[in-house]
Every structure is written in structure tokens, then in C-alpha cells.
Amino acid sequence: MALPTQIPSSIAQALEKKGYSALTEVQEAVIASVADGADLLVSAQTGSGKTVAFGLAIAPTLLNASETFQNSKNPLSLVVAPTRELALQVQRELVWLFGNAKGKVVSCVGGMDARSERQALQRGCHIVVGTPGRLRDHIERGALDMSGMRAVVLDEADEMLDFGFREDLEFILDTSPKDRRTLLFSATVPRAIATMAKRYQKGALRISTVGEREQHTDITYRAMAVAPSDKENAIINVLRFYDAESAIVFCKTRQEVNRLCSRFGNRGFSVVSLSGELSQNERTHALQAMRDGRAKVCIATDVAARGIDLPGLQLVIHADLPTNSDVLKHRSGRTGRAGKKGICALIVPHTMRRRAARLLQGARVEAEWVKAPSLEQIKAKDTERLLSDPSLSAEYDEAAMVFARQLLEQHGPEQVAAAFLKRAQADMPAAEELLDAPAFDDSPKGRRDKNDRREPRATREDFGDSVWFSMTAGKKERAEPRWLLPIICRLGHITKREVGSIKIGDNETRFEIKAKDADRFMEAVAASGGGEKSIRISREGDKRPASTKAYKNDKPSKREKFNKAEKFRKTEKFEKKDDSPKPEALDAAEAATDESWVPSLEEMERPKAPSKPRARIDGSPSSKPKKKKEKWSRAKKNLAKNKRADVAKKKKFAERSKGAASSNPGDRTLSRSSDK
């Protein structure tokens, strides 16, 4: 299929050389006659060729009916991108697109040598690509002359607003000529972008492709519910199961990126990291390693979620759920680009499944809820790959075949095959055994419509077979179901549906778990160390797990102490033996034979130990009882310390004044007479 005729011949030749036989939907829309010379507000799906699209859109404006660029001292066009990586990528795309037209493209991004950029601008160029902060710096210093600008392009404009570049963008647009063309490109157009378009664009043409409103057909979405403690193990299993040529793992923080990069590197993965704390040189080397094939896995923050194009990227893994649906789209859009297929896997802790479902629904994405690849599935997949290894069906020269026959004769076919298998498995990182996570039904049947009434809560008689457990927290610790239930679910990797009755006692709490989930619950609790802090969970009938700390709950309450003392006093040991005559109503002989006799309370009391008289200083005994030592708080101790310090200061001052008065008696007399 031939390219459209309205494209300048120099640009068409560059497209054909790059392998373009037809344009994408967004590329055809921007070169239509209705868009010629107009301001554009374009939104299209990720990977649809927006960079080439705005290059085709501004080409007629810059070339001005010519096949090549004329010498120009001042730049003719400005392209603003949110990140350094995207700006450098746009520069590379525009270099080959305008190469036959003799266009000069200069980049101005943070982290690079500003002096070299100013020298490149002084030598002259036609297109400047940069980040907002560095471009504003060059404009304020007079290195970038905006007087000749014919077109300004904002790529991923919504991301620049999210990054806090609104003030820089407004400064750049205000310093550019009023008769320029303004083109805004993004995968999504939120309200903030629409507001900016109204302010800085004149009669903008809104272009929204059909693909932008639908799910990306080249990306297969899979959501995997896992136990919270198995998140990293699940990522390892996903990487091993799909064995993609290149994959990217998105994390929320830089610390998480560093930790995963270190762990995956130790496990045998060829991995690089990409985050904002790295220098521009390190970030460039990391992306280049992915493009060259020297690294297969990239652990990155959302700095790599916009516009980064890694050829052959087949797998995107969300280690942490994105903050909103737009970020989910942009992250997932790193794969499935230029008509190639890709897989997007969301690692979802089972405690966050509802949030993941809302994110997918907001992004208008239908994901398949599956379990993370197990150890058995990975072994089966490895066997399948080995049996279909291309090297087994390739053709080899005669020298290789002669050596192969020699190997077979010397070692035998089974030994040679075993050596081949061992060599192939040596390069494979070991997979992990995962805990079972509860199933999640996000099908339309499993969702509840807003207009439907909530189903009545099932009674405890319908709970089914269960196993009782106990935990060391009760009413003394002010235990309540609203904070006990999250602890049970978090430690046991279950949901509230698997928890039955919760009975809170004075010192411990009993709760029931469904019988089918009891073993899995106990395994997860054991993996968590048997509990957290002072709370320990055990199955009823089992011995309480040992702990290095004493339990608060093991101390008897005052009521228990009183009951124990009363029970102990009623034993025969403490029945008072007295040979004196009993009251007149009942003599001693009758008391010894009558079983209905009950001793008085005074007779049941334990005899008090004689108190030792307190000795005085002179050695004579004191009649005053010994006072119990009062336990002082820290505040009371500090107060007493301050008082002692004040007394010492006053005493010292008095001694000093007394010494001064004795040394100058005349002055003292004079002062007294003057007072009179």
C-alpha cells in the first residue's frame, strides 16, 4: 500500500526506508486536509505512532512547500516532553524522519551538559526537543530564541501537568509567537489539558481515534491474586513462565526498585534499574542495555511509563498497583506497540482485589483473573520449550555432525542428552513455591449492580464445617472485632469470608476458620512467625508457640487472684485448730461431730506474720509502722531534682554574700546609713 501523496517526498522516502507501507489511524488523521495548519488536540492509544504523527503534522509548516530545510539561525519548532528518556527518544525519531530533508534536531534535557546544548543552539538548528525545566533555563539565559517558532508540540501534556510543570509550560507558551501552531498529544485528555487547550489554542481540532476509546487489542491483560508475602515470588514465577525476550517491572518507589533489582540479580536474571535517583548517563545506559539485549528485565518507577519504546518488549508486570487508571494505561502501553502482541500482568495481593477491579473498570479493560504460575506449571513450560528448541531442528555443517557422532559413540545418546538438558537448565533461575490465594470472581455475575439490594448476610448455621483457633488478645487489651479481623486476614492470607464467629474473652479470643482453609491458614501464620508483636495464634488443642517475650495475657486478673485465694483458704490446711471452748450454742464436742458446723470468717483467715518493730536511731524500737515507699514518676523525680538545685544555689549565694560583707565592713555600714 502506497503512502498518502500529501506527505513531502523527502519524508515519504524516510518512512519507506524505515519499513512503513501504511500509516496508523492517528497518523492519517493529522495529515488530513481539515487538519492542515490548524491547532490540534490529539488523543490516541499508546503505541499508535504519535511521535511520527506530530512529525508529519508539523512538516508542511516547517518546510513551507519545500523538500528540504533552509538555513535558519533560530529554531522553527519546539517539542516538549515530560521525561529525559522520552525527549531523547523523540529526538532519535525526528532525526531519521527529517534526515532526507536535512533537518537539524537538538536536544535540551536535564542532566546533560548545558554548555554543549547552548553551543548547539548557537550553531543553528530547526527543531529543539527538551524537557520543560531545561528549556525554560535556556530561554531565560537567552540561549534559545523563541521569535522564529512556527509550531510548539506538547507530547504527553497530561503527564507534564502531573509532574508540576504547569508554570514552566505556561512560561514557554507565553514567550513563543502568538501566530504559532500549538499541538497537544497525549494518550488521555483530562480536564486540566482541556483547560490549557482553551487558553493557548485557537479553534483547536479535536482528534480522538476509535482505538483510544477501546481496549488495546494487542495487549492481553491478566490479573493474578497472590498472598501479600508472596508478591516478589509471584513476579519471579511470572518472569520464568513467560520467559520474554525483554520485560519491564513497574514499582511505586525508588527503594522498591533497588531492592527488587538486587534480589532478581542475585537470582540470576539479567536486570537493570530505571528511576529518578539515577543520573542521566546511568539511565541512558540502562535503556541501551535493554535495546541491545544485554539485559532482559528492567525494574522501573513510573518515570519509564510514558512514551518509552523498547523494541521487542513482550511483558509488563505491575509489581505495585498504579495510582489511577491513566497510569495503568500508560504502563501497559510499553508493550503491544506497532502491531506486536504483548502481555500485561497485575500482581494483586488478595487484600487489594477490589481496588484492582476498580482500576481495570476505570481504564475500560477486561482482565482475566488467574492464579500466578505454580512450580509445576513452570516445569511443564520449561519441558515444552526444551522439546521445541530451534537448535534441535537446525541444520549444521559436516564438521559439526562428525563431532556429534563422535560424542554419541564415546558417551552414548542418553548421556549427551542429559548434558544438553543440564546445560540448558543451568541458565534458568529457580522458580518459587507459592501459597494458595483465595479465588476471586470479577465476572459480570460476580459483580453486584448499584441498583440491586445487598444480599442478606449468611447466618452462622450456614457457615459450614470449621476449625477453631485462639489468639492471645482479649478484653483486657480492649480487643474488638473491627481490629482483630484485619490481623487474622493479614497473618493468615485469607479474606473475611473464610472467618466465622469471633468470641472475645478476658485474656484470649477464639475464632473459627472454614475447615477447607484451616491448613492453609495455619501455614501462612507459621510463615509469618506465628503472629505479630505480642499476639500469637494457635489452633485449639495445640500447644501455644514459644515466645521470647512474656505475654501480658498470662498474668491473672485481680478477680482470679481473689477467687484462687478464697478457694485456697477453704482447704483443711488453713482451718484454725483451737482447743478453747466453742460458743454456748454449740460446745467443742458437738462441733467435732456435727458436719453442718461452719467456721466463722475470723477462724478462716490466715494468721498474719508478726511485724518487726522499726528501730530508732538510738537503737530503741519504734512504735510507728513502716511507710510504703512511694513510686515516683519521672516528672516527680525531675521536680525534686530542680528543687534540690534551687536550694543549693540559694545556699551558695548566701555564703558568697556573707563572705563579701565580712570583707568590706565599711561598705556595709555605709549602705545601712544610706538606707536610713
Mean pLDDT: 80
Query: Which bin fits the share of residues in helices?
Result: 40-55%
Mind telling me the CATH class of the domain at 9-213?
Answer: Alpha Beta
Sheet with most strands: 7 strands, parallel
Structural class: alpha/beta
* Radius of gyration using CA atoms only: 41 Å
Q: If classified by CATH, what would the architecture of the domain at 9-213 be?
A: 3-Layer(aba) Sandwich
CATH superfamily of the domain at 9-213: P-loop containing nucleotide triphosphate hydrolases
Q: Report the portion of residues in β strands.
A: 5-15%
In the predicted model, the low-confidence regions spanning at least 5 consecutive residues are: 543-554, 576-606, 667-676
Question: What is the number of strand segments?
Answer: 21
CA-CA gap between termini: 122 Å
Strand order across the largest sheet: 3-4-2-5-6-1-7
CATH fold-level topology of the domain at 9-213: Rossmann fold
Total of DSSP H or I helical runs spanning 4+ residues: 25
Coarse morphology: extended
Describe the protein's architecture and organization.
There is one protein chain. By secondary structure, the protein is of the alpha/beta class. Helix content is 41%, strand content 14%. The strands form four sheets. A seven-stranded parallel β-sheet has the order 3-4-2-5-6-1-7, sandwiched between helices. Strands 10-11-9-12-13-8-14 form a seven-stranded parallel β-sheet, with helices on both faces. Strands 16-17-15-19-18 form a five-stranded antiparallel β-sheet. Helix 6 packs across helix 8 and helix 17 packs across helix 18. The longest helix has 30 residues. The relative contact order is 0.07.
